[in-house]
UniProtKB/TrEMBL annotation:
Keywords: DNA-binding, Plasmid, Transcription, Transcription regulation
Molecular functions (GO terms): DNA-binding transcription factor activity; transcription cis-regulatory region binding
Taxonomy, superkingdom: Bacteria
Biological classification of the source: Bacteria, Pseudomonadati, Pseudomonadota, Gammaproteobacteria, Enterobacterales
Protein name: GntR family transcriptional regulator
InterPro entries: Cro/C1-type_HTH (IPR001387), HTH_LacI (IPR000843), LacI/GalR-like_sensor (IPR046335), Lambda_DNA-bd_dom_sf (IPR010982), Peripla_BP_I (IPR028082)
Organism, scientific name: Rahnella sikkimica
Length: 340
């Protein structure tokens, strides 16, 4: 069903709120209330309105409806990339939780350059979203100024700081790195290779691990930064280069499960065995990590719960509901499997 109907001259036109009201046998005001504020309308009336909407093909003008209440029901969600499975569950959870509260999500991919994020967010704000979700805590001063001037609720996700722009839910990447370093020191390892994607949060985890490992005298560390997107091919290529000179490692520490999977695949191709010849650890506990062979030791973050809570915090703030904890630390969990 489309929303094109005929007027009295026989010409096509877009269905209006009045068309829906006539079809439903209700007043335009009742129809408007049912569409824009269903909590105050009886379920039977909403059902009549929605049936009329289907018959006429009417498309509600959510922006026009929002102007009357100073709300657009639009939430902008900004992530660096979507081809990274690390963010998929969180984005889906945000979308589902927002939809349950009557909001619509506008997803924007900004990459990892602060200038790109600033430019895109400035454009987003021209659409007058009710709130915005930003990934990470490191933003340009221009972006912070723009958001503060917009005076809308903001939730930053996937990181931790005592001084967020507004609200924050995430975890400490430095502590994740510390935990990885402590785990391998406990195993008595001394020779480490790092395969790290060139994004800020991955680097913080790497540095957190190295700070712990260097506390042990005699530790040998080789670092390799890889380009984005950090896929399996990149992991395979990185390991191949790392071991090309005959260098030996006790553990290869990867900034993502995807890189770790690539490392394991290349190790097998080179006739090496994980974890017999060296251990491998990833990050994020993606859905394939437990089913890989060998299964991948990793760091798990509840990506879905993080998204649900971020959406709830934002919707509460928009609707004037007090947010008791504007800074939430979701924590993390080291998941020990076969690869390490």
């Amino acid at each position: 069903m489309n929303n094109i109907i005929k007027n009295h001259t026989g010409r096509s036109r877009t269905a209006t709120l009045e068309d829906v009201a006539r079809e439903a046998g209700l007043s335009p005001m009742t129809v408007s209330r049912a569409l824009n504020n269903p909590k105050v309308v009886r379920p039977a009336t909403i059902a009549r309105v929605m049936e009329a909407v289907n018959v006429t093909g009417y498309i509600p003008n959510m922006l026009a409806g929002g102007l009357a209440t100073s709300r657009t029901k639009l939430i902008a969600v900004v992530v660096p990339q979507i081809n990274n499975n690390m963010f998929v569950d969180t984005v889906q959870a945000i979308s589902d939780a927002l939809a349950a509260r009557g909001y619509h999500m506008l997803l924007c991919i900004v990459g990892y350059e602060p200038e790109s994020e600033t430019e895109i967010v400035a454009t987003l704000l021209s659409r007058r979203p009710d709130g915005i979700v930003l990934t990470g805590i490191h933003h340009s001063s221009d972006l912070k100024r723009i958001i503060l001037n917009a005076n809308i609720p903001v939730v930053e996700i996937w990181d931790l700081t005592p001084t967020p722009i507004d609200m924050l839910i995430g975890f400490s990447h430095e502590k994740v790195g510390n935990a990885i370093g402590e785990y391998f020191l406990g195993k008595g390892f001394t020779r480490f290779g790092f395969i790290c994607a060139s994004d800020r949060r991955a680097v913080v985890r790497k540095n957190g691990a190295i700070s712990v490992l260097r506390s042990q005298p005699g530790t040998e560390i080789r670092e390799m930064m890889v380009s984005l997107p950090a896929n399996m091919e990149v992991g395979r290529t990185a390991l191949k280069e790392m071991i090309s000179g005959g260098e030996r490692f006790d553990a290869i520490i990867c900034s993502s499960d995807t890189l770790a999977q690539g490392v394991i695949m290349e190790a097998e191709a080179q006739g090496l065995r994980v974890p017999d010849d060296f251990s491998v650890i990833g990050f994020a506990d993606l859905n394939f990590a437990a089913h890989n062979r060998p299964s991948i030791t990793t760091v798990s973050v509840d990506k879905w719960d993080l998204g649900i809570k971020a959406a709830s915090m934002l919707a509460d703030r928009i609707e004037g509901i007090p947010v008791e904890e504007p800074i939430l630390d979701t924590g993390y969990r080291l998941v020990i499997r076969e690869s390490a």
